[in-house]
Design goal:
Layout (H helix, E strand, L loop, with lengths): L10 E8 L6 E11 L2 E12 L3 H9 L5 H23 L8 E4 L2 E6 L4 E5 L2 H8 L3 E3 L3 H5 L9 H7 L5 E5 L2 E8 L2 E9 L1 H8 L11 H5 L4 H7 L15 H14 L4 H20 L4 E5 L6 H10 L3 E3 L3 H20 L7 H4 L9 E3 L1
Parallel strand pairs: 1-4, 4-7, 8-11, 11-12
Antiparallel strand pairs: 1-2, 2-3, 5-6, 7-13, 8-9, 9-10
Amino acid sequence: MPISSKQFTPLTILGLMSGTSLDGLDLALCDFNKSNGAFDYKIIKTHTFPYPQELFQKLRDIYDGNALFLCQVEVEFSNFMAQCANQFLENAEKRPHYIASHGHTVFHQPEKGLTKQIGSGAILAAKTGISTICDFRTADVALGGQGAPLVPIGDLLLFHQYEGCLNLGGIANISKYRNNITTACDVTLCNMPLNYLARQYSCAYDKEGALAQKGAVNLDLLEVLNKPDYFSFNAAKSIGYELFATYYRPLLESFSITVEDKLRTVCEHIAIQITHNIEGLQTVLVTGGGAKNRFLIDLIKEKTETKLVIPDEQLVDFKEALIFAFLGYLRMHEEHNALHSVTGADRDSCGGTIYL
């Protein structure tokens, strides 16, 4: 994707990211610049704010709520984001020029022209006094795209030394750069079903995959997990919470096997799908909470010759917040921040609504 040769102004941007795994709100304060034809970044400060239990429950239940409930939760969530941003910036060494917020995805059905991320940019701008960029996905969907993944533009311009970038969040997604073309997709659900199962043991997540390692693969469950046509579909594609709510969760609940066996089988499914998607790549950068799941990483390594590179913990945890800050940087310079080669849209686009 060509980037114009115009002058880029150095900016400090605070990136906010809430993923589908509901691990918490990630904040990354970052500097960006472009020099000698290449973009560079510096992460100044990071932090994850866990959700209060009541808000966590509401975010988890929002898919099954009504329109009024959605609006009420959005206001509560937006105020929480603003409170976190203000607290985070109290002792920061510099104040950002902008906030770039991904928000929290509650509905994603791009085939119907629909994607919804809650998180009011108006509330963030009003409560922090900082101009805010949000709603990054809808412009791409309006152009016929999936609105996701959006991270690949950041992978291309900030992490071009890797042939692929794999994020193991609530949803696993991959960016690949070959023959001067960037392609990407959501691979499968990852931490979303794993965390759901771990909570049955009153654990927020399965630390290092210890519970999964105790289980055995259930071949019948594995076959059904790998069955959806989505996995053989090669065009632009993305996944939302809907796949978990309507397929994975009912499926997992229908099998009368131990939680350990379910975790082990889901890990096997994830490893199979990821291995298929990284085939032929030499090196892949791996980030997201799943990068800390030692058992899952070992399963993937057993199935591939691709070298998996796991960076320092800060980049593992905050790469998506960093990249959404970078998407904001591109937006403020009126540069494309969504790639049609990734999303299937009619053309590249510059997405993001700005609240001054």
